[in-house]
Amino acid sequence: MFARRTHWNTRPNALTTLLEEKQRCGETVIDLTRSNPTRCGFSYLPPDALAPLSQAAARQYEPHPRGLLTARKAVAALYADSRILSPADVVLTASTSDAYAMLFRLLCDFGDGIAVPRPSYPLLEYLCDLADVEPMPYRLSLDDEWSLDVASVLRCIDAGARAVILVHPNNPTGTWVRPEDLAQISRHAAREGCAIIRDEVFAPYTWSDRSDPTHGYDRETPALTFSLNGLSKWVGLPQLKLSWITLAGPASLRREALERLDVIADTFLSVNTPVQVALPDLLRLGPTAHAAIRERILRNLGAVRTACRNTAATLLPADAGWYAMLRLPRTKTDDEWAMHVLQHANVLVYPGHFFDADDDALMVISLLPPKREITDGISALLQQL
Q1: 95: part of which helix (H) or strand (E)?
Q2: Distance (Å, rounded) from C-alpha 349 to C-alpha 335?
Q3: Residue 102 and residue 99: Cα distance in Å, rounded?
């Protein structure tokens, strides 16, 4: 009866089952996977932050495939210091998932391939399934730190990938694509008729001096390039459901891509009017949100680094994002460690394989919970080593 594309294993995994058992028994679990900013105790938004949603203009419906011009102008203004971006090269979507789905429909026929990073957020493979395209993994290598395996990206392009997804910075490794690597990939993609999709949602949350969210950006970059961002991370308001695609690359390709995106977007018209009307006001909250979230991340990162010193756990280096990765002793697999610390310490962490990490002793934690939860959770986890 059901489509093969939705033939997923939906049974709860062992970690989820154990968590549900503990919750039913009333046990208190420290959740170090919590990454929803609206549930992490932030108070940086003013009480009237959502008041712009009730403007009179929000009661009128005048749809445009790319979104209201006032909203697209507000997005273009975000990049005024680093990019020459026309509002005409902005397309509003309901979410970055919506943006990915539109771009997959734009670029791919049934069975085509999309190059995706590994490790990375598991959502990408589900989106590929739903669009009937094949994920073509390329590697992020881990030695002393994570680095992009450019050769594996180029092999995906040579094997016929219709687009390369560069999560920039990557989730969960927190690494940027180096300018020289981006330039090489863009040149090769242009020669082979392959597009680039840059997911930049974590760009505001930088940890190190090596972080540079603008590097390598050029409106006339050789390859047709789509960059993604949205309110979920930009203002820490995922419930408002608005994201955007910006275009770069050769003018003729941009023009044709926009013409085709107009038809796709006009078919779904997925972005609601009130949030578009409110967007200029909402985006002005961005710097406040960035500062508060970045302060929390850095404070928690410091606490994790201090706690891991002189222990059997290693905090892996990263540059950006709001996740951290820990390497635990190889006496257990990542699944076994995650189950162990939940069972014996009541601490929930992600095993690295949830993000397709090859190393079998990696844990992923969120840096968004309040510091007390981070310190208590990490302390309890380390006692299990």
Answers
A1: none
A2: 10
A3: 5
Element counts in the chain: helices (H) and strands (E): 12, 14
| Residue 290, both tokens | 């960035």
d(CA 180, CA 167): 16
**Nearest-angstrom CA–CA distance, 385 and 383:** 5
Both structure tokens of 130: 């739903």
* Cα angle value 226/229/234 (rounded, 5°): 160
DSSP-derived 3-state class of residue 279: helix
Q: Which amino acid is at 14?
A: A
Taking CA atoms, 122 is separated from 118, 333, 364, in Å, by: 9, 19, 13
For residue 65, give the nearest of 243, 227, 271 by alpha carbon.
Answer: 271
Closest by Cα among 212, 284, 225 to 254: 225
Type and span of the H or E element at 80: none
Distances (CA, A) of 357 to 122, 177, 227, 319: 11, 18, 25, 18
Q: What is the pTM for the complete model shown?
A: 0.95
Question: What is the rounded CA–CA span in Å between residue 330 and residue 307?
Answer: 19
- Express each pLDDT in 151-208 by its tens digit: 999 999 999 999 999 999 999 999 999 989 999 999 999 999 999 999 999 999 988 7
Residue 293: closest CA among 228, 367, 239, 365: 367
Is-cis flag, bond preceding 172, omega within 30? yes
Report residue 163 CA to chain centroid gap: 17
* d(C-alpha 268, C-alpha 63), whole Å: 11
Q: Give the Cα separation of 232 and 254 in Å (integer).
A: 26
Matching residue, tokens 């018209």: 269
The Cβ of residue 258 has, within 10 Å, a number of other Cβ atoms equal to 19
